[in-house]
Amino acid sequence: MSVIADTSEAKRAVLDYLKRNGPSEAAAAAKELGVTPMAVRQHLYALEDEGLVSFAAAPKDGARGRPSKLWQVEQRADALFPDAHAELSVELIANIKEVFGEQGLEKLIAKRTKHQIAAYRAALASAPTLKEKVKRLARLRTAAGYMAGVETGGDGFLLVENHCPICRAAAACTGLCRQELEVFRAALGPEAAIERTDHIIAGARRCAYKVRPRQA
């Protein structure tokens, strides 16, 4: 039986929380999900038995007693999140390289980029502010399987993608990741300055993009 069939809706909610927020204590997840810490711990231990999560001890500075547990999602849990047909994508990329060469692959990526930019621009065109544009972009990315969100602070916004549904394909073809920045910059327009601050392919837990209003 698959891990998907064995994972209840409640356990999935806990798993989604960890995927979005990274290593977390049970109490923090309980507060967010509106349940008791004991209930979350029970789900976490069940998920641990399935090999989907693990924990590390995190002693609190100057605190006595037991160290807290920071729970995190394991790689095996990736099967529960969108993967955009990973194996097929990787195979197609290899075949495209073999038949058309690197130049042919780059042309296909450029075509995909052009279509993405057009679609995102159309969706963001009526947004009255940069903040609303970033929020709409996050919703578009979530619909595509990236589990995206927006964090505010300082002089701008942080567009966060907690899951990469094309991770294996992107690892086989770095151009897919390279074009994301081009797509975001074109979609948000010249009033926004954007840079990638975290990258899953480089080993980070998530991909994140800092968006600031461009100085006149």
Description:
With 216 residues, the chain is α+β, with helices and mostly antiparallel strands. The protein has two domains: 3-80, Orthogonal Bundle (Arc Repressor Mutant, subunit A), CATH 1.10.10; 86-213, Muramoyl-pentapeptide Carboxypeptidase, domain 2 (2-Layer Sandwich), CATH 3.30.1380. 51% of the residues lie in helices and 18% in strands. The strands form two sheets. Strands 3-4-6-5 form a four-stranded antiparallel sheet, covered by helices on one side. The protein has a two-stranded antiparallel sheet with strand order 1-2. It is globular. The N and C termini lie far apart (58 Å). The model is unreliable at 1-7 (pLDDT under 50).
Q: Helicity range of the residues?
A: 40-55%
Largest sheet: 4 strands, antiparallel
Please, how many helices? 8
The best one-word shape is globular
Helix vs. strand class: alpha+beta
Distance separating the two termini: 58 Å
* Rg over CA atoms: 20 Å
Average predicted local confidence, pLDDT: 86
Question: Order of SSEs, N→C?
Answer: HHHHEEHHEEHHEE
Number of strands: 6
Number of domains: 2
Q: Which residue ranges are poorly predicted, with pLDDT under 50 across at least 5 consecutive positions?
A: 1-7
CATH fold naming of the largest domain: Muramoyl-pentapeptide Carboxypeptidase, domain 2
Descriptors:
disordered N terminus; globular; Muramoyl-pentapeptide Carboxypeptidase, domain 2; four-stranded antiparallel beta sheet; two-stranded antiparallel sheet; 216 residues; 2 domains; 51% helix; single chain; Arc Repressor Mutant, subunit A; alpha+beta; 6 strands
